[in-house]
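Input record (Table S2, row 505):
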Amino acid sequence: MTPIIPTFAPLNATTASTKTDAVVFMVSSAKKLDADLAALDKKCGGIISTAIDSAAFTAKKLSTLSVHLPKAAGVAFAVLVGVGEVDKLTTLCFEKLGGKAVGELNKLRAKSATIIAAEIKSKKVNAGEQAARIGSGVMLGSYYFDKYFTTKKEDEKPSLTKINIATSALKSAQVAFAELKTLADAVNFTRDIITEPANVIHPESLAAECKKLTKYGLTVKVLGVAEMQKLGMNALLGVGQGSTKESKLVVLEWKGNAKQKQPVAFVGKGVCFDTGGISIKPAGGMEEMKWDMGGSGVVIGLMQALASRKAKVHAVGVVGLVENMPDGNAQRPGDVVKSADGQTIEVLNTDAEGRLVLADALWYAQKFHKPKMIIDLATLTGAIIVALGSSRAGLFTNNDALANQLTSAAEVVGEPMWRLPLGEEYDKQINSDIADMQNIGREREAGSITAAQFLQRFIKNETPWAHLDIAGVAWSKKSTEICAKGATGYGVRLLNQLVADHYEA
Ligand code: BES
Ligand code: MN
Ligand code: ZN
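Output record (manganese (II) ion complex):
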């Protein structure tokens, strides 16, 4: 659970003999040995250079080769990680290199390692940033959720517990890492709360988790059912009324910039468990719906990230926390509810609940915070997985500039998305025969778009707004260098990057 937090040390010719189980070297496609690697190679009679020259090692980006060293080396393994073409290296590449090293070291059952972050000549990323990014990759890549294992043996757990990163730019690496660490902590926190089962993380306990974030300087306000009833938030409340857990709306505010009167707002779907309600889901796979609070998990982690790095931004996060349960008091298909902004909704399918929660949460954010921009995140539709699979989130927005900002931030952090259309022809699909709108389309087609149209009906005055449907990306069945299978935390690094690029100062 606790990821490895790397330490940093100066780079010098003796680093390679640091008392760790393994040393990791980055090797570019030119296959040139840096000073440390050459020194170690000499100590062990040239077996490292022989291995590097062999066909077994391509030096392509993220290729690896591990060499078991003789006693004379003073360290058991040299792990070579290819970096490929140096000119193409971005900050994300260095993060992946750090994560890749963690994976290889665990395969070798190494307990500790030194990563030699000798400067790779790069126009884009300086030496300190390189080492810091490797460190960030170590933190993201070593995360795993083991809280509930009680009988696992040591040899079934990851072996690695300690990483030291050697760099020629120690000071700047440490400064850069201090900030990246706060971000990695926030991503891993998001992963934790998304992974927790629904008997542990439910509306009440998640609201309590949010309360704890006041320690970062966030103001955290929690509204319960009575307060929301007063505000007329019946769309959200209808979803939670079949649950024994009290529905909550949590508002997290970070005032990191006194000059910004209007905040940027992030709104998250927090359905802590989605049974579908009376329109109940089939049993197979229903357990996945514990992560239907993924959107709110991201918003909560993002707010922690912004506060803990003292971002110069005024930001507000609003999360609607409910549990969608079937029960004697649950809402029925065909019920009509009036949302807080006065629009009426015919609930034709109680399983299309996320949009009901978001309708009132979006209203709240606009009514009380007058944001200059709103982004919502939600595991909203199965249809987005059909359309885009599990590698990209679906992006819907009323603003081209915001689309561009998001798409470029996505590229930087490696959390990609794809824009889908909005339009009148889709919007009319959600007109109801009895109310202002219905919560599912008249046809089954374009399910993610009709869901987005529904949300757009709650955006006032053309406020720049984007909706990210993260149903396909919030959880992954495959591991990558910087993300073990399970909750990904997709969106925290993305929106942190967006804020850093466009909404600070
Ligand atoms: N939480 C689900 C969407 C979902 C499905 C997320 C699979 C992750 C994986 C959402 O509340 C839902 O049930 N949506 C329905 C909408 C339908 C009833 C119009 C869906 O996608 O089937
Ligand atoms: Mn549902
Ligand atoms: Zn749902």
